[in-house]
Amino acid sequence: MAYKLGDVILSRETIARRVKEMAEQIAKDNGTENNLTFVGILTGAAFFLTDLVREMPENMDVKVDFMSVASYGDGTESSGVVRIFHDLKSSIEGKNVIVVEDIVDSGLTLSHLLGLLQNRNPASLKVCVLLDKYERRKTEVKVDYCGFRIPDKFVVGYGLDYAGKWRHLKDIKYVVEE
Ligand code: PRP
Fold first, then answer.
1. Domain 12-152 maps to which CATH number in 1.10.3720.10, 3.30.230.10, 3.40.30.10, 3.40.50.2020?
2. Mutational pocket test of ligand 1: of 48, 81, 85, 102, the residue with most ligand atoms within 8 Å of the beta carbon
3. Nearest CA to ligand 1 atom 16
4. What pLDDT is attached to residue 8?
């Protein structure tokens, strides 16, 4: 089956406004005395994370690190068993960590990943996701900051891909059948 881009679900302006609000909330909750390490989960979340951290106040101690993981599965569904391709550069022991994801779907990836990161003894561990496909949840996962709850439809852009395509779009759009 062939697919093409459909309507915009979230425009670049809507995304930018929400990202700013989320950054303000995170700053308010954490205060300037708290070091914050934002951990982006590659690849999709890189786009969201870089916009999010640039909205954080200048006087906050903000660090950025990335992990690359993939969950074993059949291609469309994740199994929840996460394989690490690229680990964090720095230790998170004693740090206030915010895991940044572009989307939470079944919740399996995040749930496994949080278990793995918790074992490294951070001072705190929070989750910030741009999109929540809540209807598809298979396991409960604690989301501290959520940008938008979206329906169970294929969406691409702003980091999200379909078979490796369309990550670079500025707006988030539906993917529809040709
Ligand atoms: C997406 C997303 C999460 C995961 C969510 O990553 O960034 O890591 O899927 O799915 P789940 O809640 O069902 O576990 P993806 O595997 O598409 O990798 P990518 O960011 O490199 O595109």
1. 3.40.50.2020
2. 102
3. 70
4. 98
Pairing of strands 96-104, 124-132: parallel
Task: Give the DSSP H/E element, type plus range, for residue 52.
Answer: helix 45-53
| Nearest residue by C-alpha to atom 6 in ligand 1 | 44
- Annotated domain spans of the chain: 12-152
pTM of the entire structure? 0.95
Q: Which of 49, 83, 84, 104 to mutate to test the pocket of ligand 1 (most atoms within 8 A of CB)?
A: 104
What one-character-per-residue DSSP string does 136-166 give?
A: G-SS----SEEEEE--SS-EEBTTB-BTTBS
171 is catalytic: no
Compute the mean pLDDT over every residue in the chain, rounded to the nearest whole number: 94
Instruction: Work out which ligand 1 atom sits closest to the CA atom of 44.
Output: 20
Q: Give the model's pLDDT for residue 70.
A: 83
Low-confidence ranges of the chain (pLDDT < 50): none
Tell me which residues have their CB closer than 6 angstroms to ligand 1: 41-45, 70-71, 78, 101-110, 161
Q: For 23, list phi and psi in degrees, rounded to 5.
A: -65, -40
